[in-house]
Design a protein that fits this description.
homodimer, 321 residues, alpha/beta, Rossmann fold, 7-stranded parallel sheet, 13 helices, 12% strand, globular
Chain lengths: 321, 321
């Protein structure tokens, strides 16, 4: 029996004690945004800090869900508790793929050590970019050791979200190097580990060579050269190797101090986004932002001048206190 | 002989009189950002307002550049002055494609009625999303009647930038509906006109039917149902039809009042982005934003609390004046 409360504090205690319904309700609060989401964020930030996050991304059909499912099995065999956030930007096209993907997760549905949640957009795409890091902090606060963030495709939001994991795994297939594919540059940028899944197919060696040389010429690369792992996730082949490389990357991040740096950087982005929302809300409510914009549009005033004017208004708000 | 001045006012007058070197220098100022970019933005906003913007996007290899080039020829045959902004997010993979694309534009290189400019990122991807609308305003200010914004691929920034044109043309090929492709949802969202290029290839009717039904079931659609035009851009077939549909869409935007609405909406986004930069710059300079974030990271303070604290600091800045 789970709690029926709607108080974030009560729900967080219940979720920490293993109440999955409470955890689900907290995640819904985060997805909806607003005051409840802020409260959950405040409570979560004070706890946790031990969760490791792995993003899995790649084109639809690359086998991400099969790989995720096999990774869950391996982690569970070591007694590790796992949560999966499946990032599903809503789309008239992707409905089929989402259902297909989720079916592959069914084998873990009855395991209390596995928590799977689809994160969908509510209204606007940007919502997922804000809600996902908050969801990760919450899963951290309730004691999940690993959070896997799996995307359906390689769209804008999905790459952004997966790229903010501690380790980002990019899943490709043999032949990837040949076909011109969208968002390849975006994927090269965020990959910490490359997995060539369906590696029993033709062209795997060539794809590995192509990836290797692309990685080596990329001047933006730092000290970490993303390893390339070959898997056949459908029969579990290569999954241990993936986890070995993820753990190596984790050790690299820890030793180099980059893990703390990345997480501080993500906190900075979240602060900036919260600050922007605060400023815009105040400017709309107290400074007539909308009529400023309407006036600027009518009178052909440039955006910088409007921003300066509104900013001056904000700096005077606290003057009378 | 063009002017050698570096004063934005002098350059803008020269560019308006047809000095291409002056126009190029103003565009570089916009790309670099900073005070010069703000000045160019201020000067540009006060002028113009008659330019029509058409975005062309689609996967690499779909034939966007050939279509753009054919569209330029058609517009020029009607005596219309055209500018092209080619959006090239820098990437180790796309170098070849960019060079290949630009070659197709060479036929217009000596026509003074055509101005072609590659917009590349300087440092960070977000730069293009900010610089491109400013570049459009500048081309508007110097009297270009049409601005075509062509992307290399369908990455995050490219779709965002192309989607902010007055009319967005999405270029696909026969068979598009069959293959699972990245960012399809993003393209469906922004398309005002669909072009099936290479329509002499097999599968064109099926692709048209698939697109048609996808468009019809999309509940997000408003009064405008994107038309589907078939072209073979390499031999100029169908280009007139594309322009007819673009003009129909333009008329629809004007009659429905949506054109003004879209442009006001884009101004709002630019104001918000300028305001955010202003707040962050001030918070960094006067309120120790970075040490606030460092402290929050150390003490596990949530981003909302940090944002509230910094915001309170901003509102008190003008109090002593």
């Amino acid at each position: 029996m789970g709690t029926r409360s709607r108080d974030p504090r009560v729900l967080l205690d219940a979720a920490s004690a293993g109440d999955r319904g409470a955890l689900a309700r907290l995640l819904s609060m985060i997805e909806r945004g607003g005051d409840d989401a802020r409260t959950v964020g405040r409570l979560s930030s004070a706890k946790g800090g031990t969760t490791y996050t792995v993003g899995l991304t790649g084109a639809p059909g690359a086998g991400k869900s099969t790989l995720t499912s096999a990774t869950i099995s391996l982690l569970r065999s070591r007694g590790i508790e796992v949560a999966v956030l499946a990032i599903d930007p809503s789309s008239p096209f992707s409905g089929g793929a989402i259902l297909g993907d989720r079916v592959r997760m069914q084998e873990h549905a009855t395991d209390p050590g596995v928590f799977i949640r689809s994160m969908a957009t509510r209204g606007h795409l940007g919502g997922l970019s804000l809600a996902t890091p908050e969801a990760i902090r919450l899963l951290d606060a309730v004691g999940r050791e690993w959070v896997l963030v799996e995307t359906v495709g390689v769209g804008q939001v999905e790459v952004e979200v997966a790229g903010k994991a501690d380790t980002t795994v990019v899943v490709v297939n043999p032949g990837w190097g040949d076909s011109v594919q969208a968002n390849k540059a975006g994927l090269m940028e965020i990959a910490d580990v490359f997995v060539i899944n369906k590696a029993d197919r033709e062209g795997v060696e060539r794809t590995a060579r192509d990836l290797q040389s692309a990685l080596e010429i990329d001047e933006a690369m730092g000290a970490w050269l993303p390893p390339i792992v070959k898997t056949v996730a459908s029969i579990g082949r290569g999954i241990e190797d993936v986890l070995v490389e993820v753990e190596k990357h984790r050790a690299h991040l820890l030793e180099s101090g980059e893990l703390a740096e990345r997480r501080r950087d993500h906190l900075r982005l979240r602060v900036e986004s919260a600050l922007k929302q605060r400023v815009l809300a105040t400017a709309s409510e107290h400074l007539g932002l909308q009529s400023e914009i309407d006036g600027a549009f009518r009178d052909k005033v440039d955006p910088y001048t409007v921003a300066d004017r509104v900013f001056a208004g904000v700096t005077r708000l606290g003057g009378g206190e």
